[in-house]
């Protein structure tokens, strides 16, 4: 059975096998713009470039692809991961793409050339979520080893390790003001950390199963998890 990954305007609708589709919406209709063929296995991660002109996708085929969002053209394939790619994130300044993998690494790529800038040994198990600081100078990641980590970019220096979860850290998200990091995971909690020193500020409870995603509101006053 074939399923497709859809990008409906800005929202991710569903993930599927080997293809990426983009759709657009007007005032009264939605229509398919492109089907992006090229990956050879399930597509797990997608992201827009800050200027909305390009799309990056990550796949279990161990590659990241960059696409022209207007023409649907496959611009380049980024190779380096030795196992499947999970989440990907484009830096706010547009210069970098970060990807996480089953190979226990985070890779940072030059978004213009496709060259690998950094290979971060970002945990002792599968790497899940990844998020950029608003100034593109730091990168956070979550790992199945129950820890989140914060890196300096482009030096690749490990700035701090966030410890407190009792299950896999599945997702992380940086607050819009850059002062806090939210994380969530297999222990059914959301945690909020002070980005400057890694201090745990809050543990939010209420979920009854693994928390798969966490996202700050644009104004930084609210946090969405699910």
From TrEMBL:
<dbReference type="InterPro" id="IPR020472">
    <property type="entry name" value="WD40_PAC1"/>
</dbReference>
<keyword id="KW-0677">Repeat</keyword>
<protein>
    <submittedName>
        <fullName>Uncharacterized protein</fullName>
    </submittedName>
</protein>
<keyword id="KW-0853">WD repeat</keyword>
<dbReference type="InterPro" id="IPR001632">
    <property type="entry name" value="WD40_G-protein_beta-like"/>
</dbReference>
<dbReference type="InterPro" id="IPR036322">
    <property type="entry name" value="WD40_repeat_dom_sf"/>
</dbReference>
<dbReference type="Pfam" id="PF00400">
    <property type="entry name" value="WD40"/>
</dbReference>
<dbReference type="InterPro" id="IPR015943">
    <property type="entry name" value="WD40/YVTN_repeat-like_dom_sf"/>
</dbReference>
<dbReference type="InterPro" id="IPR001680">
    <property type="entry name" value="WD40_rpt"/>
</dbReference>
């Amino acid at each position: 059975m074939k399923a497709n990954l859809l990008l409906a305007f800005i929202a991710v609708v569903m993930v599927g096998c080997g293809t990426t589709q983009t759709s657009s919406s007007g005032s009264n209709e939605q229509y398919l713009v492109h089907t992006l063929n090229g990956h050879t296995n399930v597509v797990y991660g997608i992201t827009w470039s800050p200027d909305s002109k390009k799309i990056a996708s990550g796949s279990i085929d161990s590659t990241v692809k960059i696409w022209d969002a207007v023409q649907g053209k496959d611009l380049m394939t980024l190779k380096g991961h030795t196992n499947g790619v999970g989440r990907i994130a484009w830096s706010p300044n547009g210069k970098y793409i970060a990807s996480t993998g089953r190979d226990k690494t985070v890779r940072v790529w030059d978004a213009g050339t496709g060259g690998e800038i950094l290979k971060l040994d970002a945990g002792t198990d599968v790497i899940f979520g990844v998020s950029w600081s608003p100034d593109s100078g730091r990168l956070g990641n979550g790992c199945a080893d129950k820890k989140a980590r914060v890196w300096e970019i482009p030096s690749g220096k490990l700035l701090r390790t966030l410890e407190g979860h009792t299950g896999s850290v599945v997702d992380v998200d940086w607050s819009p003001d850059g002062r806090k990091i939210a994380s969530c995971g297999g222990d059914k909690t959301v945690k909020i950390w002070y980005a400057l020193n890694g201090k745990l500020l809050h543990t939010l409870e209420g979920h009854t199963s693994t928390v798969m995603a966490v996202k700050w509101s644009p104004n930084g006053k609210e946090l969405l998890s699910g």
